[in-house]
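User: These chains co-purify. Model them together.
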Amino acid sequence: EAQVTQNPRYLITVTGKKLTVTCSQNMNHEYMSWYRQDPGLGLRQIYYSMNVEVTDKGDVPEGYKVSRKEKRNFPLILESPSPNQTSLYFCASSPSTATNEKLFFGSGTQLSVL
Amino acid sequence: GIQVEQSPPDLILQEGANSTLRCNFSDSVNNLQWFHQNPWGQLINLFYIPSGTKQNGRLSATTVATERYSLLYISSSQTTDSGVYFCAGDLNFGNEKLTFGTGTRLTIIP
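Assistant: Joint model of the two components:
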């Protein structure tokens, strides 16, 4: 089944403790991205990747890191999480590098930073 | 970047009713898409519709790119249609990021 898989689904952590949210897609998509969703602010892009070893900042990249060593994986890293990073996170992928052609989302990761 | 306005922000309907959701853009857009976020938070791509009209069962969408708007029609609503509907698009410049509207929250009452 074609899908974008995120883990974990829920995560509670404390300020300053490094964490990684994994994202994997099995559709051979070139484009992958991370979004965070907050009440009243909608979905905002954190980082995106057009292809392996190519990543770029979105709207709200501060406090986040990403890597794209393989086509299928695009982990989101919070080196030193803070409470303002408490949010619902989504990974997404798309078949095209040139444009945002039909975006497919993972199931989301609800992160709470205490 | 572009501004995306969705209307109405909230909509409560009886099961069986029809509805029209609207998305307005501040500039001409590319790659316009509609998403449904169900009550469990999952985001599903409903339509990729840069222009024209598409139908999928009880749902259909129309985009008039030159007039900077898109419409999502839901007919014979069911309780499973409840959730938040988002539209998103980008400018015609290739790597421009996708911008999302703030959504329309639809509640279908049995």
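The CA atoms of residues 16 and 80 of chain A lie 4 Å apart.
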